[in-house]
Amino acid sequence: MSRLAAGVVLVTVHDPDDGPRGEDVGMTATAFMSVSLDPPLVLVSLRNGSRMDDLLSEVPVWAVSVLSESQRHVAGRFAMKGRVSDRLLFADVPYTRGEESGAPLIGGALATLECRTENRVLAGDHTLVVARVLTAAFPSPQGSPLTYFKGKYRHLA
Predict the structure, then answer these.
(1) Beta strands 6-7 and 111-123: pairing type?
(2) What sign does the dihedral 66-108-139-56 (CA atoms) show?
């Protein structure tokens, strides 16, 4: 499957139960797709038992930022294994907070979505999370998408 080029997104959620002000959590994903236009549905695949899988089973509203080619550093930062706290990862990343989800929407993204989970389907070692799109915006409609192919971030020519 490494031969299948994929777009790169940052899935974000605000965990209100983590500390007095809650905590923002983010995860880089390449297994993200549109499912339906009417109603507007998307799907993200999450590793079973991952922090994001656990959070999205409890917090129904979350966000997605479709990353641009210039945001490779953001994708890499939120894909690191054994990384520092998410609070530090968001420290110098420009974002606004979604009105529906309260989750970070990354500045400079090609598109941002706020989503509400409608269904969770166990599929092998992953959970497929199907969600209704509540809001969609295009903060930076110009630019090229960040893509992932054969284990590396790539430039579309």
Answers:
(1) unpaired
(2) positive
Distance CA 40, CA 25 (A): 24
Sheet holding 9-15, edge to edge: 23-29, 9-15, 61-66, 111-123, 126-137, 41-47, 32-36
CA dihedral over 64, 67, 71, 72, signed as positive or negative: positive
Structure tokens at 141: 């409609």
Q: Count the alpha carbons within 13 Å of 56 in the hemisphere toward its beta carbon.
A: 33
147 in Cβ contact with 153 (< 8 Å): yes
Extract the tokens encoding 154: 């790539």
Instruction: Tell me how many degrees the CA angle 29-34-40 measures, rounded to the nearest 5.
Output: 125
Tokens of 31: 């297994």
| Cβ atoms of 148 and 156 closer than 8 Å | no
Q: Locate 42 and state its tokens.
A: 């998307």
How many whole angstroms separate alpha carbon 134 and alpha carbon 100?
8
What pLDDT, in 10s, does the model give residues 67-111? 999 999 999 999 977 666 778 889 889 999 999 999 999 999 999
